[in-house]
Amino acid sequence: MWTVCGRRGTAGTGNSSGRGNDWGCVNALGRNHRGIGTRTALAALAGAAVVTAGAVAFGGASAAVGPAPAPIVQAAQASCLTDGAGLCTVTHGLGRVPEVIVVSANTPGQFNGFMLNTVQGSFTATTFQVRAMFSQTTPKTFGQIWFSYAAYATATAPTTPATTTPTTPSMTPTPATTSQAAS
């Protein structure tokens, strides 16, 4: 929608608004409305300047660089049947022991909710364990659980050849023998 703004009235004469010389606007529907105030306009201009400055300042920093070498990551959904202690063993495909595994329970609406944690010390190169609990003291025993996980392992760092410092052979003086001393 378009808007036309202009000065209402002239200096020293009356005008229809009764407010002296101020700015007014008429929009596309022909309705009169007062324009934005000077303070509001300056505040909007200052806000736009801050946003522009922020975009310029952070524009060059947008090419984020992560750790080198990048970690190996596997994310998947899984389900399993817990044992009598609420434990379940999950197979992963990282091929090495994960550093971190993040789990999140996915509970279908008709089933009871449960808390889900990884079991400390259970990470291997092929599996890890999770424990499902209804409360801090009540495990979800012999029940089906559904969850998502993300497993992170460090990538093998490139090996650098060991550098050796060259040694200079030292000259050991040969002791003089009697035949050399007579000459």
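The above is record 1. Record 2 follows with the same two-line structure.
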Amino acid sequence: STSSKSSMEDMRDRAEARFGARLSQLDGEGRRKNDEYRSVSAAASGACSGSTKSKSAAVSSTFVGYNPLIMVNGDGTTRIEPNPIFMTSTIVGVAAVDNSTTTACRSLQAQARQLSGWALQIEKELDRMEIAAKRADIYPGVVRSLIAARLGTW
């Protein structure tokens, strides 16, 4: 019996049967990861730009002199002990902290790098699909069309 489908249609059907379910999963994951990446990137952009004013305080002690004390020994004799006098002061200052050096910035940038690494994993998986398609006698262009139709643009 002769098939009413062309060889191209047959290839599309075989590609769909072999890769369609995984491409649907990748599409859902990709959309979520892309949304997360955009959100994290926007947060990182805000957290890493500009500077933040930060108050700091330091206590300073300055030696002023001695106030001698007369001390009585256990045997009733006396001695003079030096008693140092210090003047303390608190210095308050405001410093600008570059936001790109903050923990929040570095954390968000690391998350963005991790999410962009996920995209590289997807590219490798799609390459493996093309190789598997060639082995199954499915033209690479058929698989690329299926990928484009299923994944579209995120």
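The first helix runs from residue 7 to 48.
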